[in-house]
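User: Can you model how adenosine-5'-triphosphate sits in this protein?
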Amino acid sequence: MNDLEMYREQLAMCDDRIIDILEERNSIIEKIMAYKQEYGMPLLQPVQEEKQERRRQDKLKGYRYEQEIENVFSEIVRNSKRIQARHLFDYNIVLIGFMGAGKSTVSEYLSTVFAMDVVEMDQVIAEREGMSIPDIFATYGEEYFRNRETNLLKEMQLRKQAVISCGGGAALREENVAEMKKNGRVVLLTASPQTIYERVKDSTDRPILNGNNNIEFITELMEKRREKYEKAADIVIYTDGKTVLQICEELIAKL
Ligand SMILES: Nc1ncnc2c1ncn2[C@@H]1O[C@H](COP(=O)(O)OP(=O)(O)OP(=O)(O)O)[C@@H](O)[C@H]1O
Ligand SMILES: O=C(O)C1=C[C@@H](O)[C@@H](O)[C@H](O)C1
Ligand SMILES: [Mg+2]
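Assistant: Here's the modeled complex, given as structure tokens:
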């Protein structure tokens, strides 16, 4: 065997070791999850995760390939998150609820902790139409926008383990709810009208609230929608006074 052949052989052996160690790492991830579930512990432990990351970065300091190895680690961690998500949710998570209930906020957090894809319905529709939601309403009317929502939900049948952050009105059509439930679990996020008002009062992105952005209008519209939201929901989460981490823990526990 010449030197080149020997190096190639060594490289192949390195790959084998990496494969074995990754298998071991992933089974440890599964054991940690099972342990937390068995003892009713919170699954998301951001402080512990940061600690682990700092430890890794300290260990890597001064290594010749510090940056390259760190890049590999970010993929390893991403994949661990996906393994956890697969283990927990074999379906799409569909977030519904009134404007300002926190659908986008919770979606973003879930995508960070579980590396799940997020479909932000309002954003997808706005991008496809090449105009903002208020402009779609003004140009084509609400019915046109609602039809775009229905079509997008039908497309979601092809997705799995995605977080779907619905527009505030998406769950009001029965047909939409039927689509959501085909391969998703529907999570209703709610908050008091006061909380909603505090969260949305400075924004002009929600055409339904423009000119009506006050607690009385919000209370009345929420009440009008309440029955439909609740009927659509597989689980309900009250978000007043809760952090996004607490909301996500509750979501995991209830699902
Ligand atoms: N649990 C929470 N605690 C404090 N603030 C929150 C919480 N959830 C959301 N917010 C804030 O409220 C505002 C509205 O939240 P978000 O955009 O997530 O609502 P949404 O349900 O997606 O609304 P829309 O239906 O209009 O898209 C944001 O500024 C967000 O930071
Ligand atoms: O509650 C609603 O009816 C809406 C909420 C937003 O997310 C947008 O989808 C649109 O402004 C309509
Ligand atoms: Mg949103």
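A couple of observations from the model: The longest helix spans residues 3-38. The chain is about 65% helix and 10% strand.
User: Helpful, thanks.
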